[in-house]
Amino acid sequence: MSQDGGDTLSLSTAVFLGILQGFAELFPFSSLGLLVILPHVVHMTVPTSGARYLPFVVALHLGTALALLWYFRVEWMAVVKGWLAWWRGKRTSEGRLGWLLIWGTIPAGIVGLLLKHPIATLFAKPLLAAVFLIINGGLMLWGDRWQKSASRHVASVGSLSIGQTLKIGLFQILALIPGMSRSGATISAGVSVGLSFEEAAHFSFLLATPIILAASLIEIPKLHGGLHGLALQALVGGVLAAITAWLSTRFLMRYFQVHNLFRLALISIGLGIVSLILVH
Questions:
Q1: CB of 155 within 8 A of CB of 196?
Q2: Nearest to 224 by CA among 212, 234, 215, 210
Q3: Radius of gyration (Cα) for the chain, nearest Å?
Q4: C-alpha distances in angstroms, 37 versus 43, 49, 123, 139, 270?
Q5: pLDDT of residue 2
Q6: Residue 188 in contact with residue 28, Cβ under 8 Å?
Q7: Pair 262, 197: CB distance under 8 Å
Q8: 178, 32 in Cβ contact below 8 A?
Q9: CA separation for the pair 101, 116 (Å, rounded)
Q10: Alpha helices, DSSP H only, in the chain?
Q11: Which pLDDT tens digit goes with each residue over 169-228?
Protein backbone atom coordinates (compact mmCIF):
# COMPACT_ATOMS: atom_id res chain seq x y z
CA MET A 1 0.00 0.00 0.00
CA SER A 2 1.24 3.41 -0.90
CA GLN A 3 2.07 5.88 1.84
CA ASP A 4 4.13 8.28 -0.18
CA GLY A 5 1.43 10.86 -0.83
CA GLY A 6 1.17 10.24 -4.59
CA ASP A 7 -2.12 10.40 -6.46
CA THR A 8 -2.83 6.71 -5.91
CA LEU A 9 -6.48 6.52 -4.89
CA SER A 10 -8.54 4.98 -7.72
CA LEU A 11 -12.23 5.68 -8.32
CA SER A 12 -13.12 2.03 -7.60
CA THR A 13 -11.38 2.29 -4.24
CA ALA A 14 -13.21 5.56 -3.53
CA VAL A 15 -16.52 3.83 -4.31
CA PHE A 16 -15.75 1.01 -1.88
CA LEU A 17 -14.59 3.33 0.89
CA GLY A 18 -17.61 5.61 0.43
CA ILE A 19 -20.05 2.72 0.88
CA LEU A 20 -18.04 1.48 3.85
CA GLN A 21 -18.09 4.92 5.47
CA GLY A 22 -21.84 5.37 5.12
CA PHE A 23 -22.42 1.99 6.72
CA ALA A 24 -19.86 2.06 9.52
CA GLU A 25 -20.33 5.69 10.63
CA LEU A 26 -23.87 4.99 11.83
CA PHE A 27 -23.49 1.34 12.72
CA PRO A 28 -21.18 1.40 15.76
CA PHE A 29 -18.16 -0.21 14.10
CA SER A 30 -15.96 2.90 13.70
CA SER A 31 -15.78 4.04 10.11
CA LEU A 32 -12.39 5.63 10.86
CA GLY A 33 -11.06 2.34 12.16
CA LEU A 34 -12.25 0.34 9.16
CA LEU A 35 -11.01 3.02 6.74
CA VAL A 36 -7.57 2.60 8.31
CA ILE A 37 -7.58 -1.20 8.61
CA LEU A 38 -9.13 -2.39 5.34
CA PRO A 39 -6.66 -0.73 2.94
CA HIS A 40 -3.88 -2.64 4.70
CA VAL A 41 -5.74 -5.95 4.88
CA VAL A 42 -6.87 -6.06 1.22
CA HIS A 43 -3.79 -4.23 -0.07
CA MET A 44 -5.58 -1.20 -1.46
CA THR A 45 -3.40 1.53 -2.86
CA VAL A 46 -4.32 4.39 -0.55
CA PRO A 47 -2.31 7.47 0.51
CA THR A 48 -2.46 6.80 4.23
CA SER A 49 -0.21 9.68 5.26
CA GLY A 50 -2.50 11.78 7.43
CA ALA A 51 -2.04 15.00 5.47
CA ARG A 52 -3.53 13.37 2.35
CA TYR A 53 -5.88 10.72 3.63
CA LEU A 54 -7.52 12.73 6.41
CA PRO A 55 -9.14 15.31 4.04
CA PHE A 56 -10.47 12.47 1.86
CA VAL A 57 -11.90 10.71 4.91
CA VAL A 58 -13.48 13.97 6.04
CA ALA A 59 -15.11 14.29 2.61
CA LEU A 60 -16.70 10.89 3.13
CA HIS A 61 -17.88 12.07 6.54
CA LEU A 62 -19.40 15.14 4.90
CA GLY A 63 -21.57 12.84 2.80
CA THR A 64 -22.68 11.15 6.01
CA ALA A 65 -23.48 14.50 7.65
CA LEU A 66 -25.57 15.61 4.67
CA ALA A 67 -27.51 12.33 4.81
CA LEU A 68 -28.21 12.90 8.51
CA LEU A 69 -29.31 16.47 7.81
CA TRP A 70 -31.73 15.23 5.18
CA TYR A 71 -33.09 12.40 7.30
CA PHE A 72 -33.76 14.72 10.26
CA ARG A 73 -34.45 17.78 8.07
CA VAL A 74 -37.82 18.61 9.65
CA GLU A 75 -36.37 18.45 13.15
CA TRP A 76 -33.26 20.42 12.17
CA MET A 77 -35.38 23.22 10.67
CA ALA A 78 -37.40 23.38 13.88
CA VAL A 79 -34.22 23.40 15.98
CA VAL A 80 -32.64 26.23 13.99
CA LYS A 81 -35.84 28.29 14.10
CA GLY A 82 -36.23 27.64 17.81
CA TRP A 83 -32.60 28.53 18.53
CA LEU A 84 -32.90 31.82 16.62
CA ALA A 85 -36.17 32.59 18.40
CA TRP A 86 -34.38 31.96 21.72
CA TRP A 87 -32.25 35.04 21.07
CA ARG A 88 -35.44 37.06 20.72
CA GLY A 89 -36.59 35.91 24.15
CA LYS A 90 -38.91 33.11 23.00
CA ARG A 91 -38.06 29.95 24.93
CA THR A 92 -39.08 26.74 23.15
CA SER A 93 -38.15 23.06 23.45
CA GLU A 94 -36.62 23.21 19.97
CA GLY A 95 -34.46 26.15 20.96
CA ARG A 96 -33.31 24.34 24.09
CA LEU A 97 -32.39 21.30 21.99
CA GLY A 98 -30.31 23.60 19.80
CA TRP A 99 -28.35 24.71 22.86
CA LEU A 100 -27.92 21.12 24.03
CA LEU A 101 -26.45 20.16 20.64
CA ILE A 102 -24.01 23.07 20.92
CA TRP A 103 -22.94 22.01 24.43
CA GLY A 104 -22.56 18.43 23.28
CA THR A 105 -20.38 19.44 20.33
CA ILE A 106 -17.94 21.64 22.26
CA PRO A 107 -15.75 18.92 23.89
CA ALA A 108 -14.93 17.03 20.68
CA GLY A 109 -14.54 20.29 18.77
CA ILE A 110 -11.93 21.64 21.16
CA VAL A 111 -9.98 18.37 21.40
CA GLY A 112 -10.12 17.86 17.64
CA LEU A 113 -8.59 21.28 17.00
CA LEU A 114 -5.91 20.93 19.68
CA LEU A 115 -4.86 17.39 18.75
CA LYS A 116 -5.44 17.46 15.00
CA HIS A 117 -1.89 16.53 14.00
CA PRO A 118 -1.35 13.73 16.56
CA ILE A 119 -4.71 12.26 15.54
CA ALA A 120 -3.70 12.34 11.85
CA THR A 121 -0.69 10.12 12.60
CA LEU A 122 -3.04 7.35 13.78
CA PHE A 123 -4.27 6.86 10.20
CA ALA A 124 -1.12 4.87 9.41
CA LYS A 125 -1.52 2.51 12.39
CA PRO A 126 -4.03 -0.25 11.53
CA LEU A 127 -2.92 -2.47 14.40
CA LEU A 128 -3.87 0.21 16.90
CA ALA A 129 -7.22 0.71 15.16
CA ALA A 130 -7.92 -3.02 15.47
CA VAL A 131 -7.23 -2.91 19.21
CA PHE A 132 -9.60 0.02 19.62
CA LEU A 133 -12.33 -1.84 17.70
CA ILE A 134 -12.23 -4.43 20.49
CA ILE A 135 -12.27 -1.69 23.15
CA ASN A 136 -15.19 -0.10 21.28
CA GLY A 137 -17.17 -3.32 21.59
CA GLY A 138 -16.36 -3.51 25.28
CA LEU A 139 -17.62 0.04 25.77
CA MET A 140 -20.93 -0.86 24.16
CA LEU A 141 -21.28 -3.91 26.42
CA TRP A 142 -20.86 -1.54 29.36
CA GLY A 143 -23.47 0.72 27.75
CA ASP A 144 -26.02 -2.06 28.07
CA ARG A 145 -25.18 -2.46 31.77
CA TRP A 146 -25.30 1.32 32.33
CA GLN A 147 -28.78 1.48 30.83
CA LYS A 148 -30.05 -1.17 33.21
CA SER A 149 -28.47 0.51 36.24
CA ALA A 150 -29.34 4.15 35.37
CA SER A 151 -30.66 5.87 38.47
CA ARG A 152 -33.47 7.54 36.55
CA HIS A 153 -34.82 7.61 33.03
CA VAL A 154 -34.96 10.65 30.75
CA ALA A 155 -38.16 11.00 28.76
CA SER A 156 -36.57 12.47 25.63
CA VAL A 157 -33.43 14.18 24.35
CA GLY A 158 -35.02 17.54 25.08
CA SER A 159 -35.16 16.62 28.78
CA LEU A 160 -31.38 16.21 29.09
CA SER A 161 -29.56 18.54 31.45
CA ILE A 162 -26.48 20.47 30.37
CA GLY A 163 -24.33 18.20 32.55
CA GLN A 164 -25.75 15.05 30.95
CA THR A 165 -25.24 16.55 27.49
CA LEU A 166 -21.62 17.40 28.29
CA LYS A 167 -21.06 13.82 29.41
CA ILE A 168 -22.32 12.54 26.05
CA GLY A 169 -20.17 15.16 24.33
CA LEU A 170 -17.09 13.97 26.22
CA PHE A 171 -17.71 10.44 24.98
CA GLN A 172 -17.85 11.81 21.43
CA ILE A 173 -14.13 12.67 21.81
CA LEU A 174 -13.41 8.94 21.61
CA ALA A 175 -14.59 8.96 17.99
CA LEU A 176 -11.45 10.92 17.06
CA ILE A 177 -9.50 7.69 17.60
CA PRO A 178 -9.66 5.21 14.67
CA GLY A 179 -11.39 2.13 16.01
CA MET A 180 -13.69 3.96 18.43
CA SER A 181 -17.21 4.48 17.09
CA ARG A 182 -18.90 7.87 17.44
CA SER A 183 -22.37 6.34 17.55
CA GLY A 184 -21.29 3.50 19.84
CA ALA A 185 -19.69 5.89 22.33
CA THR A 186 -22.46 8.49 22.35
CA ILE A 187 -25.29 5.93 22.45
CA SER A 188 -23.56 4.22 25.39
CA ALA A 189 -23.23 7.58 27.14
CA GLY A 190 -26.83 8.43 26.32
CA VAL A 191 -28.26 5.30 27.90
CA SER A 192 -25.97 5.75 30.92
CA VAL A 193 -27.75 9.04 31.74
CA GLY A 194 -31.20 7.46 31.38
CA LEU A 195 -32.17 7.69 27.70
CA SER A 196 -33.76 4.72 25.97
CA PHE A 197 -31.69 3.13 23.20
CA GLU A 198 -33.94 4.71 20.58
CA GLU A 199 -33.63 8.20 22.10
CA ALA A 200 -29.88 7.77 22.64
CA ALA A 201 -29.44 6.83 18.97
CA HIS A 202 -31.61 9.80 17.99
CA PHE A 203 -29.46 12.23 19.95
CA SER A 204 -26.26 10.53 18.77
CA PHE A 205 -27.19 11.04 15.12
CA LEU A 206 -28.19 14.66 15.72
CA LEU A 207 -24.97 15.32 17.64
CA ALA A 208 -22.79 13.83 14.89
CA THR A 209 -23.87 16.39 12.30
CA PRO A 210 -22.35 19.66 13.64
CA ILE A 211 -18.90 18.25 14.39
CA ILE A 212 -18.65 16.49 11.02
CA LEU A 213 -19.73 19.62 9.16
CA ALA A 214 -17.23 21.73 11.09
CA ALA A 215 -14.38 19.33 10.29
CA SER A 216 -15.41 19.35 6.64
CA LEU A 217 -15.25 23.14 6.42
CA ILE A 218 -11.64 22.94 7.59
CA GLU A 219 -10.44 19.96 5.54
CA ILE A 220 -12.47 19.93 2.30
CA PRO A 221 -10.68 22.94 0.70
CA LYS A 222 -7.43 21.00 0.93
CA LEU A 223 -8.75 18.49 -1.60
CA HIS A 224 -8.54 21.04 -4.43
CA GLY A 225 -5.45 21.44 -6.56
CA GLY A 226 -2.26 19.51 -7.09
CA LEU A 227 -1.34 19.14 -3.42
CA HIS A 228 -3.92 16.45 -2.86
CA GLY A 229 -5.59 15.74 -6.21
CA LEU A 230 -8.39 13.68 -4.66
CA ALA A 231 -11.36 15.95 -5.39
CA LEU A 232 -13.10 13.61 -7.88
CA GLN A 233 -12.55 10.57 -5.67
CA ALA A 234 -13.85 12.51 -2.68
CA LEU A 235 -16.98 13.57 -4.58
CA VAL A 236 -17.80 10.03 -5.71
CA GLY A 237 -17.06 8.55 -2.29
CA GLY A 238 -18.99 11.28 -0.51
CA VAL A 239 -22.14 10.76 -2.59
CA LEU A 240 -22.10 7.02 -1.98
CA ALA A 241 -21.41 7.59 1.71
CA ALA A 242 -24.49 9.83 1.86
CA ILE A 243 -26.76 7.24 0.22
CA THR A 244 -25.50 4.42 2.42
CA ALA A 245 -25.69 6.57 5.56
CA TRP A 246 -29.32 7.48 4.88
CA LEU A 247 -30.23 3.80 4.53
CA SER A 248 -28.23 2.95 7.67
CA THR A 249 -29.96 5.67 9.70
CA ARG A 250 -33.39 4.50 8.58
CA PHE A 251 -32.59 0.93 9.59
CA LEU A 252 -30.99 1.79 12.95
CA MET A 253 -33.77 4.11 14.11
CA ARG A 254 -36.09 1.14 13.77
CA TYR A 255 -33.56 -1.34 15.16
CA PHE A 256 -33.12 0.52 18.46
CA GLN A 257 -36.86 0.58 19.05
CA VAL A 258 -36.61 -3.07 20.09
CA HIS A 259 -32.90 -3.90 20.42
CA ASN A 260 -29.93 -2.82 22.54
CA LEU A 261 -26.18 -2.62 21.82
CA PHE A 262 -25.28 -6.20 22.75
CA ARG A 263 -25.24 -7.79 19.28
CA LEU A 264 -23.48 -4.81 17.73
CA ALA A 265 -20.89 -4.87 20.50
CA LEU A 266 -20.07 -8.51 19.76
CA ILE A 267 -19.70 -7.71 16.06
CA SER A 268 -17.28 -4.87 16.87
CA ILE A 269 -15.20 -7.15 19.08
CA GLY A 270 -15.21 -9.82 16.38
CA LEU A 271 -14.13 -7.33 13.72
CA GLY A 272 -11.32 -6.16 15.98
CA ILE A 273 -10.04 -9.68 16.64
CA VAL A 274 -10.14 -10.65 12.95
CA SER A 275 -8.41 -7.37 12.05
CA LEU A 276 -5.70 -7.99 14.63
CA ILE A 277 -5.00 -11.40 13.12
CA LEU A 278 -4.96 -10.17 9.52
CA VAL A 279 -2.96 -7.01 10.15
CA HIS A 280 -0.47 -8.65 12.50
A1: no
A2: 234
A3: 18
A4: 10, 14, 9, 20, 14
A5: 42
A6: no
A7: no
A8: yes
A9: 22
A10: 11-24, 31-41, 50-71, 73-87, 93-114, 116-121, 126-149, 162-172, 182-192, 197-219, 231-255, 262-279
A11: 999 999 888 889 999 999 999 998 889 899 999 999 999 998 888 877 777 776 665 445
